Amino acid sequence: MDSKGERLLAAATAPVAAPLPQALRGRWRLSFDPQRLRLREEAMEILEKAEVGSFSPSGCLEEYQARPEIFRSFALRQDLHCLVEASPGFLEVYEQLLLTVLLPWLKELKSATQKRAQFWYQYPPTLRVQPGRSREFKRPHRDAEYGHQIGELNCWMPLTDYNLTQTTLWVESEPDRGDYEPLDISYGQIGIFHGTLCRHHVPQNSSDFTRVSMDFRIGLGEYFDPSWQLDGVKHVHGRALACLFWGRTPTGHPTTC
C-alpha cells in the first residue's frame, strides 16, 4: 500500500531541474579523518544535554542509555533536532566535512572540467539514535515520499562502532530492485547513494549497544530545484548553499530555503 507521501508525490508538480545523469545515481564509500573531524565527540556533547537518554558510567557512546521510544517518537526527534541546530561546534565540524571532503569529491564526480559548481546541502544534518535490544526498525522507503528530489544524493555515516552494534542501513542497488545490502562501514566512512529513488531501511538493533548515526542529503546544482517543496509533508529540512570554484577554496553560507 502506498504511503501518504507517495500519494502526495503522485499529485505534485515536478521540480524544475535537469534530469540527474545515471552516472550520479550510484553507490559510493568515502573516508575522512575522524581525528581531524571529531563528529563523534561533538555528538556526545549534544546527547549529554538531550533528554532522550543518559550516559552510563563508562561514558562510551555505544553504551548510551537511550529512551526506548527515541527511534520512533517524532517529538523526541524534534527535540534532538533543535539541540543539533543550536550546537555551533557540531555544525562547524559538519560543514568542514562538507567543504573539505564531500563537496570537492562530488565536484570531481559531477564534472572535473566545470569551473564552478553549486550544491544545496541539508542544514542541519539529522542525528539518529537507535537503542540496543530494541524491536524498533525503519521500514523500506524511498526519500521521494518525504519530499526529496531526484537531484539529491543521500549521505549516511555511523558515529558508533559497527563491530559492536552490527546494525546498519540496508540499501537496494537500483530503484525497485529489492536486493538490499548492508552499508558495511564504520566511523570515519560515509555511505553515499541515491536514496530518493532507491529504497532503504534499518532493521532492529539486536545488540546490547546503542547505534548513533548522522545522515543528510546534498542537492546537485542544476539537477536540484531549491524553490520546490512537496506540499503536505510533515517536516522540511533547512538548506545551505555552497559554491566551489576551480582552484579555489570552497565557500558555503547557511541559508534556509
Give the helix/strand layout.
Blueprint: H1 4-11, E1 27-31, H2 39-49, E2 53-54, E3 65-66, H3 74-85, H4 88-110, E4 116-122, E5 126-130, E6 138-141, E7 152-158, H5 162-165, E8 170-171, E9 181-182, E10 189-193, E11 200-202, E12 211-220, E13 239-245, E14 251-254
Helix pairs in contact: 2-4
Attribute tags:
single chain; 257 residues; alpha+beta; Jelly Rolls; four-stranded antiparallel sheet; 5 helices; 23% helix; disordered C terminus
Average residue-wise pLDDT: 90
In N-to-C order, the SSE pattern is HEHEEHHEEEEHEEEEEEE
Architecture per CATH nomenclature, i.e. the level-2 architecture:
Sandwich
Helical percentage: 10-25%
Describe this entry's structure for a reader.
It comes from Cladocopium goreaui. Keywords: Dioxygenase, Oxidoreductase. GO terms for molecular function: dioxygenase activity. This is Fe2OG dioxygenase domain-containing protein. The protein has 257 residues and is α+β, with helices and mostly antiparallel strands. The protein has a single domain (25-254), classed as Jelly Rolls (Sandwich). 23% of the residues lie in helices and 25% in strands. The strands form 3 sheets. Strands 1, 4, 5, 7, 10, 12, 13 and 14 form an 8-stranded antiparallel beta sheet that branches. A hairpin with a 5-residue loop joins strand 13 and strand 14. Helix 2 (39-49) packs antiparallel against helix 4. The longest helix is centred in the middle third of the chain and has 23 residues, at 88-110. The two termini are 32 Å apart.
